[in-house]
User: What shape does this take?
Amino acid sequence: MERMGSPVCHSGGMTLKTAKKTSGFVLAALLCPLLGWVVITAAQDDDRGTIQPAQARQALTLIHARCAVCHTTDLIVQQRLPADRWTVTVEKMMHWGADLSKDEAAVVLQFVTARYHSGAPDHLPSIEEELAMIAPAAGPRPGFEGPVTGVASRGAGLYAHNCQACHGEGAAGGAGPKLARNTILKNEGAFWETVLHGRGPMPAWSAVLSHQEIADIHAWLATR
Amino acid sequence: MTVSRREWLRTALQGIGVGMVVGPGFPSIVTAQGNEARQGTGPLTVRVSRPFDAETPVREFASWLTPNERFFVRSHFGPPPADSVKPDAWRLTVKGLVKEELTLNLKDLQQLEAVTLTAVLQCSGNGRAHHRPKVPGVQWERGAVGNAQWTGVRLRDVLQRAGVKPQGAHVQFQGADRPALATVPLFTRSIPLAKALHSDTLLAYEMNGRPLPLLHGAPLRVITPGWMAESCTKWLTEITVRADETPGYYMQQAYRIPETAVRLSSGLPGSAMVPVEQMPVKSLIAAPAEGDTVRIGPVTVQGVAWAGEAPVVKVEVSCDDGKTWEQARLLGEGQPYAWRQWQFVWSARTPGPTAILCRAIDAQGEQQPATSPWNPGGFLWNGWDRLSVTVAA
Assistant: This one.
């Protein structure tokens, strides 16, 4: 985890001062109270707070799965912003439809503020390269949790939030293949393997969706 | 890393070659499919793979016209499905505060008088990466600009056919591009009626003598010569005459600058925000290239310079990192809205590292500043261009 640790933890004192100076008013006036704690923590802590590998993994997975819906993550990695502007940016994305819970948003925000701050090096690895560098989660590989029965009506909304941008409305295909009537729906082993662990440009969903939610999506896809 | 690189290139690039991508953190090579696509195409520097944002390497600006396949691409949401903008499926509607609503196809439009003019098209965010403190947005460096010949009809002629009602004061443009999720605001823009009625404001269907490529707005886009590119809506399908400026994110929040300069790093604007319109005077060095080693003796420094609605009258070059300046020679004839090529022969005498700078002045006396006023969106960068070179003995 050396590779993960060092760039995440490094912060320039210079950047921090910029963030403090520019963000006083903004912090008070604009911060969404739900997200504010991350920024305040970052601004108070001269070391910017270490990002634990597990948190980094969760943040990267979320960025890959939830942010890449509308634009590739290169747009995120090229920013070098103070905490206040990151907060406003992530809030804007959520307002526009980035599907993150409060806790997930806090994880993403903490990661991007620590990683892509104004003093960070010009070139940093892509989200996908970082994901590839990270070892898989410790402990038993998420496997079969016992039979779950999918509920198609719940799957529709989950599909719309998580999959539609790439697989198209009605699962008719888009940047990702058509899923409606796709033979993979009958091959549950392959379906679960692909959805849980990802494949190429297809994000891994094991850290993002529960098995119940994936089963719901599967059930809905089967009705298409 | 890109979500849909293969698929996406197949559907969207349509014969436009996209080659090397600069900087680690990006895929090292993005190759267009097929040999025919690779032929006669040049590399673009990709900033965002989807929706596609890519800039032209400045060495291309050694030529007066920027070829279509090397022209920078800025996409809010990317091209609409190719079928929907095929000439036989596509329609333009003209509505709002008009006496008669119109629905036109491309042939109808082409009945109107055709006009050709050469104009610089530049993204307002070109040079955003140079602003300090840094601001959010696509981190464009120098190449989100190009000079092309546009052929089309006057927007004025179309508006005259529909008849603008007296209350009409703004003309709104809507393209066929749509965001991935419907919760994202549409890219809807308007320009004041005076600019819309200007005889040089075009609805263009050709770029450099060829039908407008899909990435550049096929089959029809707006061209507002002298103004920044966000008024130049691509894939145009709707023109709406309105009494007020278009509401919504892309007109009321994005593409605005403070009316008076803001204090550096004051974080947020302290003054009213007004829409970005005219291009400020600017020049770029096309050759030599950043990091080049040149030999002692004569070195040709060349580039381009342009300004919004006024011609460029002077370009100055410094080959000693800004200590002394000399006047460059302007090439060819000045043409309104087009950029002007310039050249300067530098006698490089002192071995070692140095920097070459350039700055332009327009007919209104506006001078390119050393650095541009900071603004929260990072728009309108026009600071002196600068590159480092080494003189070899």
Q: What stands out?
A: Chain A touches chain B at residues 18, 21-23, 25-26, 68-75, 77-82, 84-85, 89, 96-97, 118, 122-129, 164-166, 174-176, 201 (CB under 8 Å). Residues 16-138 of chain A form one domain. Chain A has two domains: 16-138, 152-222.
